[in-house]
Task: structure prediction
Amino acid sequence: MAVPSATGTAVLLNADPDLQTTLDRVERASGRILSPKTATTMDAGYFAVITDAEGNTMGLHSQEGAARRVQDYSAGGSSSGAVWGRMAAIQKMRSAMASPVPTAM
Result:
């Protein structure tokens, strides 16, 4: 049987189009924001780390602000920057999620 955990499998969820809208609902639903909305590297959007009411840790990501980058690539630019930016964003979320989770006293 699976038990909610801060150290179990990390679930990463898409919070497009606006990560802040999702974060505004977290605490109202008895969750906690562990890492606030943070810009990723290479203009790949934003991420945050939360726990839900059962103690499951999740990463949230949105691609806000990435529209300019997509337009640049569609005009003939290279898309490799987008790939590296997305990979860097995932690594940054993993690092944030690996940090010790504060416990309630």
